[in-house]
Design brief:
heterodimer, A: about 325 residues, mainly alpha, MetI-like fold, two-stranded antiparallel sheet, 13 helices, about 75% helix, globular, B: about 270 residues, 14 helices
Chain lengths: ~325, ~270
């Protein structure tokens, strides 16, 4: 994946955003005198967002360890990546971790939204409780999850035993490390999907439901043929946000497993941390950053493509 | 009868879906209030016979706790305040110029992993000799706070009515006066949303601190993480520390959940 493709995909996303707002923009006044409001923020954005990006691309073309002088090596850092077994493995881990961390919260979040869409006492209070996991400090909850995962004293194995299930080694065994981390991620981020989908559900008019009830539709049929088509755009947005956050996930993994045991749960972000701040190989780390970003944009593009294709099928025409 | 069964099923489903969140935090509280002997017992004790407040005292009296607490306040406070000062006018300008395309930069900032900023900015701070002070953390937290504030404020200013502003300009007010006296008061609830989310995300941030903070400049999330390494076996103080760090956020979430939900879904649905 090259930088150029990444740039194109970003441009494509930008074009979509622009196209959506373009109709509203026509014939509106656009006075130049609003610039002073924007300039201070532009300076800060240049300093903390644009500058790091430009510098990263420059560094990625150099062999540079902290404390030594940088030497220009062209694309050598990028060419190193495919033969770096640890990097290739981390890409695989990231894809598995991301797929599970998008799918599970999406399913459970939709279910939660359907439940929260009913009227019941203290709904606001319970919604507050329900979103606590995603607002709480990730390191703090990671710490408690680590205790809960403890094979001998942890409460999770006790809960398993109550249901007659055998104990698990959770994050302490290579085979269960990623699924256990996904469990934490799902617990944490199901509320966000719920909020987005709930926004979609509450916008649906009541008439279709009433006529479905008269026709004697089952709750599943009502959901499948009325709610689901209407909340599809919201599900797509939730999937997109979830994907971007899951790919970048760091705090939870770093605090619970540090990428271990061995390198069983080492995602790209965790490997990037080691290369940059354990080995201080900033040139190589910068190349990883660029490829990592390209991967995220590619995944976002794939999701976008998926939506446009389904949209095309539904509308039977232009999308 | 069928109605009753439906209600029963709904209540059951509701309990199943809400309990993981509730039980987790109750378990966290339980861990933080138990003596080691109860924390290390099997089967686990949920409600202990004796309560050990000493875990909290141990954390608060520990050597640098107060330093770390004030570090967090300074970093989060400065990064949020600065983000509001430059981000609110920027959101206004972008909304009035109808330059939503410029928000693509914010989109890129949202997609980019936090670590990516750390490498170049770490080198920059090293070169400037700022490492060892709180400045690097305050500056890098702007990566989090500025995009949130701008993004939310664009959304708010786009929905506020233009008629008042236009008539104020006809009456001879400058653009700054219009912003200060007309637009800003109307957008107060939007500013509250931006403030709350900015505070929470800055307070919770961990990745910037582990690289940029030294022994004296740690924020609370980093300090808690560092406790793990040499306190592995005493769960009580660890859980108490974790709860102290995240308690302000939990409290804010419960009291300002309406604003938080508005802010998070506004960013998502547009």
């Amino acid at each position: 994946m090259s930088e150029l493709t990444a740039g194109k995909a970003v441009a494509k996303t930008a074009a979509t955003v622009a196209a959506e707002t373009a109709t509203a923009q026509k014939n509106e006044w656009r006075p130049i005198s609003y610039w002073p409001f924007v300039i201070p923020a532009m300076i800060v954005v240049m300093a903390v967002i644009i500058f790091p990006w430009v510098y990263t691309i420059w560094m990625s073309l150099h062999e540079w360890k902290v404390g030594q002088a940088p030497t220009f090596v062209g694309f050598a850092n990028y060419l190193r990546l495919p033969s770096d077994a640890r990097f290739v493995e981390s890409v695989g881990h990231t894809l598995v971790y991301t797929t599970l961390s998008v799918a599970l919260p999406l399913i459970l979040g939709t279910l939660a939204a359907v439940i929260f869409n009913n009227k019941f006492p203290l709904r606001g209070f319970f919604r507050g409780l329900f979103i606590l996991p995603m607002m709480a400090t990730p390191v703090a909850i990671a710490l408690v999850w680590t205790m809960m995962f403890h094979p001998q004293l942890g409460v999770l194995n006790y809960l398993l035993s109550l249901f007659g299930l055998p104990p698990s080694l959770w994050v302490f065994h290579p085979a269960t490390a990623i699924p256990s981390l996904v469990l934490v991620e799902t617990w944490q981020w199901t509320p966000l999907v719920m909020l987005i989908v709930l926004g979609g559900l509450s916008a649906i008019p009541t008439e279709p439901y009433e006529s479905a009830q008269i026709d004697g539709a089952t709750p599943w049929q009502t959901f499948r043929y009325i709610s689901l088509p209407m909340i599809m755009p919201f599900l797509f947005i939730a999937a997109m946000i979830r994907m971007i956050d899951a790919v970048k996930s760091f705090d939870i993994i770093f605090a619970i497993t540090q990428g271990g045991p061995g390198s069983a749960s080492e995602t790209i972000n965790l490997y990037l941390y080691s290369v940059a701040f354990v080995y201080y190989d900033v040139g190589y780390a910068s190349a990883i950053v660029v490829v990592f970003f390209a991967l995220i944009v590619a995944l976002a593009g794939a999701l976008l493509h998926l939506r446009q294709r389904t949209h095309w099928n539904e509308a039977g025409g232009s999308a | 009868m069928r109605d009753f069964l439906n209600k029963l099923g709904l209540t059951f489903a509701f309990i199943v879906i809400v309990s993981p969140a509730v039980l987790f935090f109750l378990w966290m509280l339980s861990l933080s209030l138990k003596f080691e002997i109860d924390n290390a017992s099997y089967p686990p004790v949920f409600i202990p016979d004796r309560i050990n407040w000493g875990n909290y005292a141990a954390v608060i009296e520990s050597k640098r706790f107060m330093t770390y607490f004030f570090n967090t306040l300074i970093v989060t406070g400065s990064a949020t305040l600065f983000a509001l000062i430059i981000g609110v006018p920027a959101g206004y300008g972008i909304a009035r110029m109808r330059a939503r395309k410029s928000a693509i930069v914010i989109l890129i900032a949202r997609i980019t992993p936090g670590l990516s900023y750390l490498i170049p900015l770490f080198l920059l701070f090293q070169w400037l000799g700022l490492l060892g002070t709180l400045w690097p953390q305050i500056i890098i937290h702007l990566v989090v706070t500025v995009p949130i504030v701008i993004w939310i404020m664009i959304g708010y200013f786009e929905t506020t009515p233009m008629e008042l502003e236009e008539s104020a300009i006809i009456d001879g007010a400058t653009r700054w006066q219009v912003f200060r006296h007309v637009a800003l008061p109307i957008a107060r609830s939007g500013i509250a949303v931006a403030f709350i989310l900015s505070v929470i995300f800055s307070w919770n941030n961990f990745v910037f601190g582990i690289v940029l903070a030294g022994r004296e400049t740690r924020t609370l999330p980093v300090a808690v993480y560092n406790m793990i390494s040499f306190d592995q076996l005493s769960w009580g103080p660890l859980a108490a520390a974790a709860l102290i760090v995240t308690f302000p956020v939990l409290l804010l979430t419960m009291f300002a959940q309406r604003q938080i939900v508005a802010g998070l879904t506004a960013g998502a649905v547009k």
